[in-house]
Amino acid sequence: MAENEDQICRDRDFPLFRFQCESASLCEFLANFFPQAELAVLRSLIFFWLGMVTSVWGAEQAATPPESIQVHPGFQVELLHSAREEDGSWISMTFDDQGRLIIARDDAGLVRVVLPTESSPLTVETLAFTNVLKHCRGLLYAHHSLYVSATNTPALYRLRDLNDDDIFEEFELLRKIDYRSRYGHGTNQILLGPDQNIYWVIGNDVSFPEAFDPQSPYRDPRNDWALPHPHDAGQDNRVGFLLKTDPDCQTWTIMAGGFRNQVDAAFNADGELFTWDADMEWDAGLPWYRPTRINHVVSGGEYGWRWGTGKWAEWYPDSLPTTHDTGYGSPTGLEFGTNSDWPRPFQKKLFAADWQNGRMLAIDLTPIGATYSATSKLFLEGAPLNICDLTFGPDGQMYFITGGRGSQTGLYRVTYVGPHSPVEQPDITESQLREATKHRAVRRELEELH
User: Fold this and answer.
1) Nearest in space to 436 (alpha carbons), one of 348, 368, 372
2) Confidence band (pLDDT; 50, 70, 90) for 13?
3) What is the C-alpha end-to-end distance of the chain, expressed in Å?
4) Which of 142, 245, 135, 133 is nearest to 200 (CA)?
5) Cα angle vertex 39, ends 239, 180, to 5°?
6) What is the pLDDT of residues 86-107, one digit of tens each?
7) pLDDT band per the 50, 70, 90 thresholds, residue 47
């Protein structure tokens, strides 16, 4: 509970009310009337309602203007496109080999966006034959192919343009998925690993795929309840997991699991993998609640999410702990600044988009032993700014899209306009860095023994 009226209005634990409550008395009323756990649920319901409203009135609305977005000093945000009714609501994106964006609509189908230049405006083109792909939460252009995670179809597809006419003539079904939705936690983003393999991020409403490698580093998750609580009756042992496959998708290896609904993942410059897992809103305020959190994903890692009271405690010897807790939120896009044209301190940060709270965090990761510690700061925020995905383009700038649940979409670009050489304060000594590198090398050697 806030100690004074000013703090009530500024409290970042209640971001929904931060931009709607102008008076301290109203904010104090809300904070007193609703316990913290009920506020989390209330906030989720209101955002769901707002999504429904905007889906009906979307044609009369426009994306949030840049002047309503607060961004880290030295950066500027541009609104490149405010989606029209015929454009739909956008949820995921990838750059192709010609520097064009391929974007998935919330309901079905894909569009291609050619970015504006000094001599030509931005264009949006619907891609032929793609309406059969429904609610594609993951897109990756790699190996001269477009990989598509079609959540509501549900399967992984590979699309190829065989004659360079800008039409994907070949639709190849790579793997069907057993997706039995409880809360929409299906197949999510796809990313290219430093080993050139494909990594698929999958939520906890999906069963392990058929014909996955039985010697996968992660396999056979169990609830391990000695005394199940009646609250958790009827729930199975599905968990979120990370799946690796080769470019032709002939082998399927489950790398790690025990997540709830991690929407995206990202590799840092050292080839280490991170994800941002969701919380369970119903558990807010209860002893087994755990907040949204950044996880360092290692081969064979068990991260302990289970239904209700069955969550594994961090002190379990076979459950890996959080790297960084981030409170209430709805994690979506995740990307390191490695390929950006930004100053070096920002190239090392992990940028994390929060759909619910209309914000993006910049996360600093410091090597420690064979893993990392982390801190986070606000990078940008707006109201509304329901970010679904972000990526860095061939020009080294950040691009992100808002949308989802039928809401208004905007395509934005973030560029650095500050000093060319900001001072970088080292957060670790050279000897500590060498020691951490050595520990990670030993861990990877051990991982080869799975």
Assistant:
1) 368
2) very low
3) 48
4) 245
5) 25
6) 999 999 999 999 999 999 999 9
7) low
CA atoms within 13 A on the CB side of 267: 17
Cβ atoms < 10 Å from Cβ of 193 = 15
- Which residue stretches of 255-366 are H helix? 344-347
Q: Residue 92: what pLDDT?
A: 98
Average pLDDT for the chain: 88
Given a contact cutoff of 8 angstroms between Cβ atoms, the answer to whether 209 and 220 are in contact is no
- Sign of the CA dihedral 312, 294, 49, 103? negative
Nearest Cα residue to 83 out of 102, 69, 64, 97:
64
Inform me whether the pLDDT recorded for 7 exceeds 70: no
Distance CA 403, CA 406 (A): 7
Asked if the model's pLDDT at residue 209 lies above 70, the reply is yes
Cα distance between residue 111 and residue 93, in whole Å: 9
What is the rounded CA–CA span in Å between residue 243 and residue 365? Answer: 24
Provide the CB-side half-sphere exposure for 280 (13 A, CA): 20
Q: Is the pLDDT of residue 52 over 80?
A: no
